[in-house]
UniProtKB/TrEMBL annotation:
SUPFAM superfamilies (alphabetical): S-adenosyl-L-methionine-dependent methyltransferases
GO terms assigned for molecular function: methyltransferase activity
Domain Methyltransferase: 42-130
Protein known as: Class I SAM-dependent methyltransferase
Gene3D superfamilies given in the database record: Vaccinia Virus protein VP39
Single GO biological process annotation from the record: methylation
InterPro entries: Methyltransf_25, SAM-dependent_MTases_sf
Pfam family, one: Methyltransf_25
UniProt keyword annotation of Lipid metabolism present: no
Keywords: Methyltransferase, Transferase
Length: 258
């Protein structure tokens, strides 16, 4: 079945992998938290182009990468021909055999339609005692970026855009995990200011990649001035002498299925 992620993101897998390759390297310590052991079965949910999937496989685990975007899965297969990847929605996937662990980096906040449905699918994919180890955007993530967006949209007389992300606080997400049949072993909520090294146009470039679909609803002649205004509004908080810095806030957790 061919499936395209319902998220309002229009992923450009090639741009994501080159300009925004930092998403995966900064997620590398998460693989240490997962601690995959040789022979274990691990599912990488929202695997993107498969960089972390390959990292997990390199530790000897059998990994399946799942992503909602065909473009991402095509890139993942092309880059890692020996690994297994499939297209699937985090809200609604099933697996034939149960897994020892589900891993997810920088993806759960995109599965915003129904976070409990995602947690239910993860639980059903795991064996009892299986681990759910993930990092996602947490409450306050990209607050300066998104507030610049909302103000710029409003100033241009546009309807406020519906932002596509789910950035929960630690208490809220811990409760969801516990109600969903998990014991929370570790939960951290922390700032991770992240250089937008390869975004010459700063916040505007970030909007183009991560909220590009919202620009489809903007009259073409307005897009340029709108994004220039986003940059002006975001610059005091996010532009340093060394370049632009995204105000990322992360939620990282390890939970165990009952
Ligand atoms: C920022 S990327 C992270 C990719 C990868 N985990 C990494 O660390 O490089 C987020 C990924 O989540 C995927 N995604 C978004 N919504 C999804 C959904 N509902 N189901 C499955 N994947 C989804 C996107 O297609 C994208 O590849």
């Amino acid at each position: 079945m061919r499936y395209e992620t319902p998220s309002p993101t229009r992923w450009n897998a090639r741009a994501y992998d080159s300009s925004f390759g930092y998403v995966s390297p900064v997620g590398a310590p998460l693989v240490d938290l997962l601690d995959p052991r040789p022979g274990e079965r691990v599912l990488d949910l929202g695997c993107g182009t498969g960089v972390m999937t390959a990292e997990i496989a390199a530790r000897g685990a059998h990994v399946l990468g799942i992503d909602g975007s065909h473009a991402m899965i095509e890139q993942a297969i092309a880059h890692h021909p020996g690994l297994d990847f499939t297209v699937g929605d985090g809200h609604d996937f099933t697996v034939a055999q149960s897994y020892d662990a589900v891993f997810s980096n920088a993806a759960l906040h995109w599965m915003s339609r129904d976070p409990d449905a995602v947690i239910d699918c993860v639980r059903e994919a795991l064996r009892p005692g299986g681990r759910f180890v993930a990092e996602m955007g947490g409450a306050g993530n990209c607050a300066a970026l998104t507030s610049a967006m909302l103000t710029a949209w409003r100033e241009h007389g546009l309807r406020e855009p519906e932002l596509p992300w789910y950035f929960p606080g630690p208490a809220e997400y811990a409760l969801r995990l516990e109600k969903g049949g998990f014991t929370v072993r570790l939960l951290e909520h922390f700032d991770r200011p992240t250089p937008l090294d390869e975004c010459p146009d700063g916040a505007a470039d970030w909007v183009r990649l991560f909220a590009g679909r919202l620009l489809d609803q903007v009259p073409p002649a307005t897009v340029g001035p709108l994004l220039r205004r986003v940059n002006e509004l975001a610059a005091p908080a996010l532009r340093r002498e060394s370049g632009w810095m995204a105000d990322y806030v992360r939620l990282r957790f390890a939970a165990e299925r009952h």
